[in-house]
Amino acid sequence: MDQAFWDEQYRQREQRFSGRVNGTLRVEAEGMRPGRALDLGCGEGADAIWLAERGWQVTAVDISAVAVERAAAAAGADSGIDWQQGDPRVAAPPRRSFDLVSAQYFPVLRETGHRTLRGLLDAVAPGGTLLVVGHLLDGPPPAEWTGPDPSEFYSPEEIAELLDEDWSIEFHGPRERPEVPEGNPHHKDVVLRARRLR
C-alpha cells in the first residue's frame, strides 16, 4: 500500500469518493472552535475543503499524488489549504501543532514500537482533539475480498489503548454512520475522540 498502489486505485476511477464530507467528521467538528487541522489520508479533499470553509487552517496529506492533485483542483487556488503528498511512515507531521488531527478510515500499519502511530499522535497540540474513525468489522473479510487484510492495521480500539495519562478519551465506541454512501456496505463505525491534556 505504497504511493504506486494508491495512485493506481485513484486512476481506476474518475472520482473515487462521493465528494461529500465524512458524516462523523461533520458531526464531531461542527461545534469546535476553528484552529489548525491535519487531515490524514485526505483523498480527493472533501473533508479538508469542508473544514476550510468553516474557518480551519488545514494541512491535508495523502500518499497518492493523484489524489492530492484532484483535491487541490476541487478546492481551487484560493482555498488556503496546504496540500501535501507524503507518507507518515517516512516523515511524521510537526509535533504538537494541530488543534484537530482527523483520521477518517486512514490505514496505519501495525509496527513494533508504534513509531508511525506515535508520530501521528504527537501532532496533536495540548488541548487539541484526535478524531479516529474506522469501519466496525464483524469477523474476517468475505471470501471474495481481495484488498488488504484489515487486521494488519491499527483499529480505533488499539489506538485508544495506547493513549496515556496525557489524554482524555471523550468518546470511544461503535456508532451508526450519519450518512452512508450509496452502495457502501459499512453502516456502522468505531469512533475515537480524545483530547490531549498536556
Structural account:
The protein is built from six helices and seven strands. The mean pLDDT is 91. Strands 3-2-1-4-5-7-6 form a seven-stranded mixed β-sheet, sandwiched between helices. The radius of gyration is 16 Å and the shape is globular. The protein is an alpha/beta fold and 198 residues long.
Characteristics of this structure?
198 residues; alpha/beta; seven-stranded mixed β-sheet; globular
Global shape: globular
Query: How many β-strand stretches?
Result: 7
Portion in beta strands:
25-35%
User: Share of helix among residues?
Assistant: 10-25%
Largest sheet: 7 strands, mixed
Order of helices and strands: HHEHEHEEHEHEE
Residue runs with pLDDT of under 50 for 5 or more positions: none
Number of helices: 6
Please tell me the overall pLDDT.
Answer: 91
How many angstroms separate the termini? 34 Å
Tell me the structural class. Answer: alpha/beta
Q: Looking across the biggest beta sheet, what order are the strands in?
A: 3-2-1-4-5-7-6
Rounded radius of gyration (Å): 16 Å
